Structures are given as structure tokens and as C-alpha cells.
């Protein structure tokens, strides 16, 4: 067993991930409702979620619960977030590409939608099979939504520096 992480002294890290995932999903679900400074709260929450997921040590299990996306619901959420974000949605991704792909664009609405869908699925799994949820959070982060989280965090940091979060 590894030494306790000073940032997360409680060795059962899955509970903080579940709490952070729940908080993120609630923020996204409440987006656009009244004067809630939801985007600032999302910007504050994502780095904590990132740290919590990286501190997981999931067990090897064979029975993963597959994510079956509801594409209509995903598109509805994406459209809603893109409308709320307006000109804060798009951003440039820069990387060392070869050929015509020297620069690409990203979408904060797409990042937030993918993170939401993955976390919401893992929360449903967590209710039934907590040991599968921890692995799902970690593997989903490593293979898909982690890059969305990094890109969203970077873009939100830029918006904060410009005073454009809320």
C-alpha cells in the first residue's frame, strides 16, 4: 500500500472523486439558471477533480460497465452550453504538428459535455458497483475525458485572466 497523499490524507480517494464528480454534474445541470456563477465554479472545480482522479489506484477488474452514449442528450447539452458560452466557447489548440495541422481549434462546450457524460455514467456505476466506478473514472480519464479536462482548464484559465468567466 502506498503512503497517504498529503493533499488527500484520506486513503479512500474514491469518495472525493464521487463528490467532485457530483458537484461538476450539478454545476453543468444548473448552467444558465439565474445568476449562478457556474463557469467560475467549474474553473475552480476542474483542477481538484484532476488531482483526485490522478491519485486513484484502481484495482484490476474484468467487468467494466460500458458507456452507452445517448447521442441526442449529449447533443442537447452541447448545444445548450455552446449557446451559454457564446464567444467564450472556441479556443485554439497549439501543438507541434506536421503538415497542415499546425493548429486546431477546441470547444469548451464540447469539453464540458464530454466530461459531464463520462462523470455522470461513472456516478451511475458508482451507485451499483463502487469498485467498478473507480476503475472507470481512472481509465476514462486516461483514455478520453482527461484531455478534455486539461484543455478546458487551460481555456478557463485564459478566460479568468481576461476577466471573462462570468
The counted number of beta strands is 2
What structural class do you assign from the helix and strand content? mainly alpha
Q: Round the mean pLDDT to the nearest integer and report it.
A: 82
* Terminal Cα span: 43 Å
Number of helices: 5
Gist?
With 166 residues, the protein is mainly alpha-helical. Helices cover 61% and strands 6% of the residues.
Account of the 3D structure:
The protein is built from five helices and two strands, in the order H-H-H-E-E-H-H. The chain has helices at 14-29, 38-54, 71-85, 108-128, 130-161, and strands at residues 90-94, 103-107. A hairpin with an 8-residue loop joins strand 1 (90-94) and strand 2 (103-107). The radius of gyration is 17 Å and the shape is globular. The protein is mainly alpha-helical. The longest helix has 32 residues, at 130-161. A two-stranded antiparallel sheet has the order 1-2. Helix 1 runs antiparallel to helix 2 (38-54) and helix 3 packs across helix 4 (108-128). The model is unreliable at 1-13 (pLDDT under 50).
Write the layout of secondary structure elements.
Elements: H1 14-29, H2 38-54, H3 71-85, E1 90-94, E2 103-107, H4 108-128, H5 130-161
Antiparallel strand pairs: 1-2
Question: Keywords, please?
Answer:
about 170 residues; mainly alpha; two-stranded antiparallel sheet; 2 strands; about 60% helix; globular
Amino acid at each position: 500500500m502506498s503512503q497517504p497523499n498529503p493533499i488527500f490524507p484520506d486513503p479512500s480517494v474514491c469518495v472525493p472523486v464521487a463528490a467532485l464528480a457530483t458537484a461538476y454534474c450539478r454545476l453543468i445541470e444548473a448552467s444558465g439558471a439565474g445568476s449562478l456563477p457556474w463557469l467560475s465554479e467549474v474553473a475552480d472545480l476542474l483542477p481538484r477533480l484532476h488531482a483526485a482522479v490522478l491519485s486513484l489506484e484502481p484495482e484490476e477488474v474484468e467487468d467494466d460497465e460500458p458507456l452507452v452514449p445517448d447521442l441526442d442528450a449529449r447533443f442537447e447539452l452541447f448545444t445548450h452550453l455552446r449557446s451559454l458560452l457564446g464567444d467564450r466557447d472556441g479556443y485554439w489548440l497549439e501543438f507541434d504538428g506536421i503538415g497542415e495541422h499546425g493548429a486546431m481549434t477546441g470547444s469548451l462546450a464540447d469539453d464540458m459535455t464530454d466530461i459531464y457524460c463520462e462523470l455522470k455514467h461513472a456516478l451511475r456505476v458508482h451507485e451499483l458497483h463502487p469498485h467498478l466506478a473507480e476503475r472507470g473514472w481512472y481509465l476514462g480519464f486516461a483514455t478520453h475525458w482527461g484531455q478534455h479536462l486539461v484543455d478546458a482548464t487551460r481555456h478557463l484559465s485564459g478566460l479568468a485572466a481576461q476577466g471573462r468567466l462570468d
